[in-house]
Design a protein that fits this description.
Layout: E1 12-18, H1 24-31, E2 36-42, E3 47-49, E4 54-56, H2 59-66, E5 71-72, H3 80-89, E6 93-97, E7 115-119, E8 127-128, H4 131-137, E9 142-149, E10 159-166, H5 173-196, E11 212-213, H6 229-238, E12 245-248, E13 256-265, E14 276-278, E15 284-287, E16 292-300, E17 305-307, H7 308-314
Parallel strand pairs: 1-2, 1-6, 2-5, 6-7, 8-11
Antiparallel strand pairs: 3-4, 7-9, 9-10, 12-13, 13-16, 14-15, 15-16, 16-17
Length: 320
Amino acid sequence: MTETAAEPSSVVRAVFFGSGSFAVPILDALAEMSGVRVEAVLSAPDRPVGRKAIVTPTPVTVRARDIGLPILQPARVRLPESIDALRALAPDLIVLADYGQLIPPVLLDLPSRGFLNLHPSALPRHRGASPIPATILAGDTESAVSLIFVTEEMDAGPIVAVAPLDVRPDDTAVTLEARAADVAAALLRRELPEWLAGRLEARPQAADGMTMTRPLRRENGRLDPARSAVELERQVRAYQPWPGSFIESDKTPGGRLIVKKAHVADGDAGDVAGRFVVTSGGVLALATCEGRLMLDKLQRAGGREMEAEEFVRGHPDLVR
């Protein structure tokens, strides 16, 4: 499948779909682009957040308000009234990033210059809802941001352009996403004018190497000592801030111990996977099937974050 954009008119009417923090720098890049006018921004509805259930707009909604762009927040983009509102805008171009809803097929051909998506992975690797955590979980040392066509199959559309993204050994989902967002914004600034001028050609994704990610759920955060310490340390970094990583044990206060930061160390011959160990230096560790997960920063459910040494002093019976 090969698609080529037509020659641009004087002003390209664009609509932006986005919700999460990853999309904010991309919206800025589109809004600042010469020859492009953002007619509206579609984002998820305001939702209750936190224990106090404070109704909160998405990061994209906040940014769109700051720069004075019209905002639509349909509960479902596939509803007839949502589709009618988009048709009324008559966009030449739609750009999507971190929106959070599947796009109905009826909208895919609405913009004459393309319905484009910025996805933070080296497609076809890590398609789907959680590419940033999946990149860290897999131990990838290199990734990318891909500018692609939106198609009916999720993240399977032809690739317009790609920009490399390095993955650092200490990256969390928060730090990697922030860097990916900057890379995505730079990619859009550089390549969208080329696309609109008809100087780029979309190419099909590779036939092999595809992996699919799923939406994260709270239960995904459980740290399983039947897995290696290396895998669990990646999980601690990958699942920040959501869903977090935790240990469930009758030895932990309240039955659950949230792990905020960890590192890997060699295990001892007498280690039993699933048991806590306190080193001679007072550091708390979880023994796993392979190595120890050293628990640097911890938090009881409903409590405050603390260093492992402080936690051990307050819970001397933890390893008995």
